[in-house]
Amino acid sequence: MDFEHADEIGPEKIVHVYDPKTKLYAIVVVDNTASGPSIGGIRMVEDVTTTEVFRLARAMTLKNAMAEIPHGGGKSGIIANPKIEEKETLIRAFARAIKNLEEYIPGPDMGTNEECMAWIHDEIGRCVGLPRELGGIPLDEIGATGFGVSVSADEAKEYIELDIEGSKLIVEGFGNVGRHAARFLCKMGAILVGASDSRGTIYNPHGIDVDKLIETKLRDGSVIKFKEGRVLGREDLLSIENDIFVPAARPDTVNEKNVGLIRSKLIVEGANIPITEKAEKILHDRGVLCIPDFVANAGGVIAASVEYRGGTEGEAFERIEGTIRKNTKEILDVVYNENRYPREVANELARKRVFQAMKYRRGKL
Ligand code: NAD
C-alpha cells in the first residue's frame, strides 16, 4: 500500500485502468471533490506517470478553487502516443472505463482535443471541451485562456503604473494561449514587438500586426515565416526590451539561469508553471510583477464549467472577466499591503477556499 502523495487535501482516488482487449493503460487521479465533481484534462503521451497526473490534478484543485467554479480538481493520463491509429479505440475504451467514476469530468489536454471529447460524449455523455456542434464552447478557438490573461494584465497595471496603451508586449509560445493573449492585449493598445514558438522568435521593434502573424502561424506553421520582422533564436525573445511578457509555452522556460535576461515590468503567466519559483522570487525582488499561472490562466476551465451547465460563449466571457479581475485584485492588494510574493498569497487563498469547501462536507476536517 502506497500513499506517498496523501496530504490534507487529497488525492481522494488514484485509479489505474487496464483494458486487455484494446491495450489501454491509463491513470486517473481525483484529487479533491469538496466543491463538486473534479474537472481536469486527459493527457495522452507515452511517458505520463502517476506522479505527473497527481501533480496536474492538484494544480487543477487549486485553479478551480481560485476560479470559484463548483468543481474540484482531477486529471488523467493515457499512456500512448497520441498519433497512433487506434486513438479513437483507446479514447472510447477509456470513456467506458470511467463511466461510473462520476466524480471525474474529463476535458482536453496535451494529446487530446475536441474530437476526442466528442467520442467520450458519445460513450458516456460526461465531459467538457466539446465541439460547437455538440453544444460546446470551443475554448481554443475563442481564446478563453488568452482573454483571461489580458484581463489579468489590465487589472495588474493599476498596481505598477503601467499603461497598456502603447506598452511593448512579448509572447513566448504563439499557440492557443499565446496568440489569443496577444490579440486581446493588442486590442487594448499594446504593441507586439516579439513572439516565439518552438522554432524561433520574430522581432520587430516597430510593432507586429498580430492578425497577420496569427495567419502566418496557422498557415505556415511558425512565427519565423513572418516577413515583416527579424528572425532570432528561440531564447532571444527574453532579451527583447518590453513592458509586458506573456510566457505561454512550456514549464520552467524562465529559470535561475536565464532570469537575468528579463526586462519586463509585468509578467502574466499563460502557461502552467512557466517560471520556476526561485526565478519568480528573483523577479519580484527586482520589481517585476508576476501574476501566477493558476490566477491568470483559468479562462479555459471557467469556460468549461459554463459549458457543462449549458451556458453560452457570452456567459463564459463574462464569467472569465469578472472572476479573473476579482482574483488578480484580491491577491495584489495583499501583495502590496503586506509586501509578500504573489505566488505565496495566491497559494494561500486557493488552499483556504479548498478548506472552506471541505468544511461543508459530512465528517468535516
Ligand atoms: P499550444 O500547443 O497550442 O501552443 C504552444 C506553443 O508554444 C506552440 O506554438 C509551440 O511551438 C510553442 N513552444 C513550445 N516550446 C517552446 C519554447 N521552448 N519556446 C517558445 N515556444 C515554444 O499549447 P497551448 O494550448 O497554447 O498551451 C500552452 C501552455 O498553456 C501549456 O503549458 C498548457 O498546459 C497551458 N494552458 C493551456 C490552456 C488552454 O486553454 N489551452 C489553459 C491553461 C493552461
Task: Label this structure with key terms.
single chain; 365 residues; alpha/beta; Rossmann fold; 2 domains; seven-stranded mixed sheet; five-stranded mixed sheet; 12 strands; 41% helix; globular; binds nicotinamide-adenine-dinucleotide
Strand content: 15-25%
What is the terminal-to-terminal distance?
A: 24 Å
Mean pLDDT across all amino acids: 96
- What's the shape? globular
**CATH homologous superfamily classification of the largest domain:** NAD(P)-binding Rossmann-like Domain
Here the CATH topology of the largest domain equals Rossmann fold
Question: Which structural class fits the helix and strand makeup?
Answer: alpha/beta
Describe the 3D structure.
The longest helix is centred in the last third of the chain and has 26 residues, at 313-338. The chain has two domains: 13-136, Rossmann fold; 144-299 and 326-349, 3-Layer(aba) Sandwich (Rossmann fold). The model has no long low-confidence stretch (mean pLDDT 96). The protein has helices at 50-66, 87-97, 114-124, 139-142, 144-160, 176-187, 210-220, 277-285, 293-296, 299-308, 313-338, 342-359; strands at residues 13-19, 24-32, 38-45, 73-79, 104-108, 168-172, 191-197, 200-203, 230-232, 244-247, 266-268, 289-291. 41% of the residues lie in helices and 18% in strands. With 365 residues, the chain is an alpha/beta fold. Strand 3 (38-45), helix 1 and strand 4 form a beta-alpha-beta unit. The chain has a seven-stranded mixed β-sheet. Residues 139-140, 145, 172-178, 196-198, 234, 248-250, 253, 270-272, 297, 300 line the site of nicotinamide-adenine-dinucleotide.
